[in-house]
Amino acid sequence: MLSPPEVALLFKSSEPADRTAQKLGRAIEKLRRTLVARLDANPLGGSEAERECLEHIVLVLERNINSTQSTGSSPAEIELSSALDSILVLARTKLQLNDPRTYIPSYDYLVRGVQLLRLNECTPPFSQADLIRCLSGAFHNSAAILYQAGSHGSAIGFVKEGCRIAEIALAVRQDSNDVGPSKSEAWKQLGTQLYRRWQLLAICYMKIGDRKVGLKGSSDIISL
Questions:
Q1: I need a surface site. Which of 62, 106, 142, 220 has the fewest CB within 10 A?
Q2: What residues have CB less than 8 Å from 73, skipping those under 6 apart?
Q3: Is 173's pLDDT higher than 90?
Q4: Domains plus CATH for the chain?
Q5: Does 214 or 21 have the greater pLDDT score?
Q6: Calculated CA dihedral for residues 220, 151, 39, 162, nearest 10 degrees
Q7: How far is 94 from 121, CA to CA, in rounded Å?
Q8: In terms of Cα–Cα distance, which of 197, 100, 185, 97 is closest to 140?
Q9: How far apart are CA 16 and CA 171, in angstroms?
Q10: For residues 148 and 8, what is the distance between their CA atoms, to the nearest angstrom?
Q11: Is the model's pLDDT at 216 over the cut of 60?
C-alpha cells in the first residue's frame, strides 16, 4: 500500500491536473488490486479495515461511473470492470456459510453489480456482455454453495437472479461480433448450463416444500 508521503506526491501543484489525476487513478487501482488479493486469500473474508477500504474505492468508482452516465456518455470499460470485480470479491468473501446473517449482505453486493450495469434500466451495450456473464456466474456460484450446504431457501434468490441475468447476457451476446476462441468457449458453457441453472431453482423450491412452484418450474424447463 502507498505511504502518506507517496500519496502526497500525487498532488504536487506544479503538475498538470490531468497528470495528477492519472497518477491518482493508477495508485487507487494498485491499492484496489492489493486489497482484492488479500481478501481473496483469506478464507474468513479479510479484516474489516481491508473490506472498508475496498468499499470506499468501489464508492468512488460508482460515483465516477454515475457521473459519466448522467451526462449521457458511456463510462470507461476499465472503470466498470474494476468496480464490478471489486463488488464480486466483496460479495464472495462476505458469504460465510456458518453465519446466515451474511447471506443477505452478500446478495445485496451482487445487486449493486446489477445497478452498476443498469440491467434494470436499459439494454446493455455489446461491450458489457462479458461483465454481465461474470455477474450471472457470481449469483449462480453463491446459489450452488448455499444449496450444497443445505440452505435451499436462501439459495433461491441467488439462483433466480442469476438465471435472469444469464438470459440478458446471452441476448446481448447474440448481437455481438466478439468471437474470440477463449471467450467463445465461456459463452458456449453458459448456454449449455442455463438449463441446469433453472433446474436448480425448481429443485430448491421443491426442497423447501413448495412443490407447486417447483413443478411449474420443471415444466417450464422442459418447454425451453
A1: 220
A2: none
A3: no
A4: 4-222 (1.25.40)
A5: 21
A6: 10
A7: 27
A8: 197
A9: 44
A10: 49
A11: no
As a three-state string, the secondary structure of the chain is CCCHHHHHHCCCCCCCHHHHHHHHHHHHHHHHHHHHHHHHHCCCCCCHHHHHHHHHHHHHHHHHHHHHHHCCCCCCHHHHHHHHHHHHHHHHHHCCCCCHHHHHHHHHHHHHHHHHCCCCCCCCCHHHHHHHHHHHHHHHHHHHHHHHCCCHHHHHHHHHHHHHHHHHHHHHHHCCCCCCHHHHHHHHHHHHHHHHHHHHHHHHHHHCCCHHHHHHHHHHHHCC
Give the cell for residue 48: 474489516
**φ and ψ at 10, to 5 degrees?**
-70, -15
Share of the chain above pLDDT 70, in %: 82
What pTM was estimated for this model as a whole?
0.83
Please name the residue that has the C-alpha cell 497518477: 23
- Give the model's confidence band at 160: pLDDT under 50 very low, under 70 low, under 90 confident, else very high: very high
User: What are the grid coordinates assigned to 81, written together?
Assistant: 470492470
More confident residue, 46 or 162: 162
Which residue, 124, 104, 106, is CA-closest to 115?
A: 124
